[in-house]
Each structure stands twice: as C-alpha cells, then as structure tokens.
Amino acid sequence: MNRLAQLAYVVFCCLLLAISPQQSQANPVVTEGDGYIQIDKEVFGAPLRIVRPDDWNGDLVVLLHGYVFPSAPVAVPPPGQELLFEALTAGLVESGYGVAYSGYRVNGYAVREGTIDSRVAQMLFGLHFGWPDRTFLTGFSMGTHIGQRLVETTPRMYDGFLAVCAALGGSTIQNDYFSDSRVLFDYFFPGALPGDLLTTDLDFLSEAVPLIFGALASNFPAAIEMASVLELEWTTPDELIEGILFSLLGTGGGTMDMQAKAGGNLYDNSERQYSGSFDDAALNGGIGRFIADHRAANYLRRYYDPRGKLRHTEVLHLHTTRDPTVPLALHQPAYEALLERRGNQDRYFVRAIDRFGHCTFGIDEILIALEDLVEWTETGVRPVE
Questions:
Q1: Of 45, 293, 297, 338, most Cβ neighbours within 10 A?
Q2: Domain 3-169+307-379, what architecture?
C-alpha cells in the first residue's frame, strides 16, 4: 500500500474512532482462540469480524460474501455461507493471514452497502491490529461485484483480487440472464409459477422451488428445450434439473432487489430473437415481452457494472465450466472485452475447473488459488491452469 492509500486509511480509521455509541456497538466481542484473536463488532448496523493470528505474516485478506436472501438475518458469518467462511478463515489464519469481513448492513442485492461495509471491516482491522503490508480481496458470486467496485474506485489499496464464481461481466448481464430464464420458464411451463418476471411474490425457497421441481419433473422434454435456448451446460438429468432451478434463483430475489434499487424494470427483450428450441418461430411469437425503463437500466449500468479499470490490481478468476447461476461463458468474454479496451487484459487470469455447480470449490482449491495470486503479485509471473 502506498503512502497516499495509508493516509486515507488512517483518516478513515480516525473517523471510526469518532463514531457515536448509537452508531457503533459499544462493547465488541473479543475471542482469544488457539493461536488467534477475533473481534466481532457492529458499525452502522453492519456486523463485522476481524481475525489476527498470533504469527501474523503482515498481510490481510478481506472476504466478500455472496447473495443472502432478504428474509435471512444480518450476521457474521453470513447465513447459508457459515461453513465456507468459518473453514476459509481457519485456513487463512493457519497460513498466517489476517482476515476481515462484513455481514453487510442489509441482505439482498447489497452491492453498494457491501462496498462500504467491507471497507469499514478492512479499516477496523488496521485500527485494532495494525496496518497490513498488503491487502487481498476474496469475493464470492455477488461479492465479486463488491470486489470490482473496491479495486476500481480505490485501486491502490488492494494488491490482488481472487474472484470466485464471479459475475465479472456485470450486473446488467447477470440480470438479463436471470430474466431470460424466468420468461423462458413461463413459456415452456405456462402457469407453473404465479405472476411473471415483474410481479413475482413468492418466497423462493419455500414456495417457488417445489412448484419448479414439479413442473420440470412433469415435462422433461420441455426442460431439455429450455436448457437449449438458455445455453445451459449439463451432462446428467440431475444437472439439467438443478441447472434450471439455479438459473431461476435470481427471480427469487436478485432481480426484484435490482429493480427496487434502480427504480424500475431493468429487462428488455422486446427485440430479442431466441433460438435453440424445436420451433423458434412459435417461441418468439409466444414468449413474454418486456420493455426496460431506460433510466433504471442506466442507473444499473452506472453504479453496478464494471469499467475494466485494473490499474494496480491483478485478478485471478476461479470458476466452474458448468455454472448454471453465473455462466462463465457469459461473463468471461464480456469482462475480457472491457479490459482489452483499457489495455488491462494482462492483469486478468481465468482458472476454469471442469465441474458443474455454482461456487462448488473446496477450501484447499480456494487457498491454492489465493497463494497463486499472491505469487503473481510478487513475481509478475502469471499463474498456470
């Protein structure tokens, strides 16, 4: 971290010291474990956790969690991702890294909130344990949008970014994919889900999932046809069913969150021509059509899409080849095109693992990828597959 970034770091931490008791938890919870010290603290409604090993190597890893359904509690570790964060924290601490992360002050599509709260967690670590020599980001799924905002807006504060199951092509691409999945599902399975893309009012996990499973099981040929149009990659019937289900995850919360934040419909397929079905003419004549609110769409692009600014940070992108939630085939070329326009393509490396699923990596795979990223920043030599 250069002197300017260190100065910003100190100023921000001084502001933290001035936070009133009404805004900050007065008595943080301190845990002294076997070989580490952990502090849990709430700042501006965001739960934060910082951990320093006794044999700290001087480096900090800031973890950025993925999407959490709005109905879940705000907490650290984040609900549904507890095992991942606890095991990863343990592995990082054992390797000598400090760890900081936030539960974000709100759940849902909390990119802007998560960006602020993750910065605060990072600053809190410095305030309590000292300034790190280097800081690395490790983000998962939606958390990679937060990582992009951090490295693009404060690039000198981060030495490397490990983007796991990452939607690096941007929120607009991801919203379009989720929305395509919903309108295609409504076409191939009419009436299976109440409402439509803009009027869904179901709890996804408890109400929508059983309806989706029932529809897919009752008409397997239609499921194959839908997957063909959506360009889902699958090798077994289980992967097909699970893939369609996970492609619909966004309509259970993500797309509605984005619309609420942007102030209108973000999806436009009014002129889209779909292909890959047994009867494309019937599909294009019968599928639901939507027109985007251009102000809302511009808002999403302005505040939630990347710019390709990688002036000082290397990015290692770890992804499965058959991810039905965040398809690598959509995001990798889109992000590479952004980077090429700015001449930053040499700072980006993709490690694609031939596997099905979203974020289906073991802790060892993530730690190895992080060590490869660290070595890249030290030597200037890009990792290998």
A1: 338
A2: 3-Layer(aba) Sandwich (3.40)
